[in-house]
Design brief:
By secondary structure, the chain is mainly β. The chain has 1 helix and 28 strands. It is elongated, with a radius of gyration of 43 Å.
């Protein structure tokens, strides 16, 4: 029994002697470790400038690394130009730097040159590099990243838009003045402003102190505008017929600039005008929609002037339809001629109304018929910008006998 115990202790002692050297010498399972740095030679840059990134990687682990790869996640807004690596090779299409083997304690360096692209779209460009592959186990791989960023200089472009006559007459000319100002801090290049004239006005001519204006596309190609400088465009247009009392809005917007814009709230402007005229509206109703043969029906026609101007020479025509016989009429303004159906109203001020009542009887032989009475504005001295409400009809359904 004692011999057995001694034998077991001996075996255990032998196992300990064999294992301990591996434990204390670090010859067990090892993992890779790396230090990555990333820097850029500029803190601020303009569109078109060249920037240089320098990426360093050091093997800080206790084992040599093989098939090491580093990925450079390029930001939108920079364009690759060239690169050089003191170890391995860089593929700009995949953005992978294949370092290869890197012994413990050794380092490698990659330098990448790029340009700030036009219309970068953001003011801060952040470039991140990361260890993306190695043959050895790398427990810290998700943490082995490095960022480098710089600020793209922006140009704050401001637009204003005014019209020289906010209450023009039809067929009169108006002048829109569009001003573009660069509040910096960077100079602006490739600037284009869009001003397609709205419906209701027709292009006549234009003049600008910089660039050119195309009336067909609506593009004002301004070009370069230095920090603190301005450019001006004047567009002359005529007011179309049929626009009386209409509001016409001319919207001008920033279409393009090479530089990002730090303030988008001042990139559009609207000039508003309201054409002189009066918006006349007509309504027509009856007091009995289903009268019997021989019954009396009263139609009430109301004309309203919705402005903005007073109107004169207003005529409404309302002929009593077949199947009904005129009895009498009352107009609170003007006169009504039953033979012609003409209600000669005259002048109606902005916001005022005029009313006509027509009393008729239902003729014999009209049972079950549908009879429509229609009133319409047939003349006014002022243009009417909205003629959709210049006719009003109402229908009576004659009861059966």
């Amino acid at each position: 029994m004692k011999n057995t115990i001694k034998k077991g202790i001996g075996i255990l002692f032998l196992v300990i002697l064999l294992v301990l050297p591996f434990v204390f010498s670090g010859c067990g399972t090892k993992s890779a470790a790396f230090s990555v740095t990333n820097s850029v030679d500029k803190t601020t840059a303009n569109v078109g400038d060249t920037v240089t990134y320098t990426i360093n990687i050091t093997n800080t682990g206790s084992i040599n690394a093989t098939d090491l790869m580093v990925t450079d996640d390029w930001p939108v807004g920079i364009t690759y130009v060239s690169s050089s690596a003191d170890k391995g090779s860089y593929d700009n299409s995949s953005t992978i730097w294949t370092v290869g083997n890197l012994n413990t304690g050794a380092s490698a360096k990659l330098t990448i040159t790029a340009t700030v692209a036009k219309r970068a779209g953001v003011t801060i460009l952040d470039n991140m590099v990361r260890v993306s592959k190695v043959d050895q186990t790398d427990n810290e791989m998700p943490k082995q990243t490095a960022n480098a960023s710089f600020t793209v200089q922006s140009a704050d472009l401001t637009i204003t838009n005014t019209v020289d006559n906010a209450a023009p007459n039809q067929q009169g000319n108006i002048n829109y003045t569009i001003n573009l100002t660069n509040d910096g801090p960077a100079d602006a290049t490739g600037v284009v402003v869009y001003d397609a004239l709205p419906q209701g006005v027709t292009y006549v001519s234009s003049s600008t102190n910089q660039g050119s204006y195309d009336s067909k596309s609506g593009n004002w190609t301004v070009g370069n505008v230095a920090n603190g400088a301005s450019a001006k465009l004047t567009v002359t247009a005529s007011v179309d017929n049929g626009t009386g009392a209409l509001e016409i809005d001319n919207l001008v917007v920033m279409a393009y600039a090479d530089q990002p814009d730090s303030n988008l709230n001042n990139n559009d402007a609207t000039a508003v005008l309201k054409v002189n005229g009066s918006d006349l509206a007509l309504s027509n109703g009856e007091d009995n929609i289903s009268p019997s043969v021989g019954a009396t029906v009263t139609f009430t026609i109301t004309l309203t002037n919705n402005g903005p101007l007073d109107d004169t020479g207003i005529i409404v025509t309302d002929i009593v339809p077949a199947g009904l016989t005129y009895l009498s009429s009352v107009a609170d303004q003007g006169t009504y001629n039953a033979a012609t159906g003409i209600w000669n109203i005259g002048s109606v001020a902005n916001g005022a109304t005029a009313t006509l009542t027509l009393k008729v009887t239902v003729n014999t032989g009209t049972a079950t018929q549908k009879i429509t009475s229609t009133a319409k504005i047939t003349h006014s001295d002022q243009p009417d910008g909205d003629t959709s409400d210049n006719i009003s009809a109402t229908q009576v359904n004659i009861a059966g006998s």
